[in-house]
């Protein structure tokens, strides 16, 4: 944690900024280890403060030892604290996370800090979070293992007559039973024509014969998320359905083969997208190929046509090509991979071959 705070302090010195207010609670957890739901973090060129209310006063002392806790009460809030601190430290420039400040919060800060330049910054912490350390990767692997084992458990109950919602409930129960803190996001179970909805949350629709079911779901372990998609088939797939599945299988495989340190994220997307396009289904793949995963389900970098991130060792990203034919069916397969110096390591152990039930 000290190294992470130090990296922010080095940037403050480089940018000639006196301090930064970190309001994104996920970024606060990343920098300090604090797991509460509400806090403000003030980092100075030397030292820093974490502001919490009475609900988290005991917790912050247990979890945080690299910045000084400050209790928010009737007399002290973020704005009064910064006003006093700015006089004590003689602030000239104070940064804040642009995406985490609404207008009213900015207005109060602006009115309370006379003669202090407020500097909105973007993705200072998010860019740090892109590259995972070994401990983070192990937690992500554990979250993925939980999710995959849960899917294995429910395969035997997938059959005509069962509803999407029933499958989602059982999947989520199995993840919780195996150690997931919560679901990583609203579980997607989309069957038949609904499988063409990229984010088709589980409904009351019942499973019929001869149709795809797309499962997109994830677990959370010690704050870190997993994200996996598998598409199974109930019945006997026809020629086009098998063709589309195999196109996606190949598009994913080829993309994973080119991932390594130094490659631009848009190139990885292009490799996969070109395969889908060359097979005549380019108009049915509308989203980016993948994204980073960690303390949040969607993090930087983005693997997309406009993605301009250069991949670095120990980034964890998803690879999830899909084809969605409205009113008919859809197919998506999603793996999680760790970027390496020479190649990517696929973290998944659950097969991405088509499972026919």
Features:
357 residues, alpha+beta, Creatine Amidinohydrolase, Chain A, domain 1, Creatine Amidinohydrolase, 2 domains, four-stranded mixed beta sheet, 10 helices, 19 strands, elongated, metal ion binding, Creatin/AminoP/Spt16_N, hydrolase
Give the spatial strand order of the biggest sheet: 4-3-2-1-5-6
The CATH architecture designation of the largest domain is: Alpha-Beta Complex
Helical content stands at 25-40%
Number of strands: 19
Ranges with pLDDT <50 over ≥5 residues? none
CATH class of the largest domain: Alpha Beta
Distance between the ends: 48 Å
Going by CATH, what is the homologous superfamily of the largest domain? Answer: Creatinase/methionine aminopeptidase superfamily
Order of helices and strands: HEHEEHEHEHEHHHEEEEEHHEEEEEEEE
The CATH topology of the largest domain corresponds to Creatine Amidinohydrolase
As for the number of domains, it is: 2
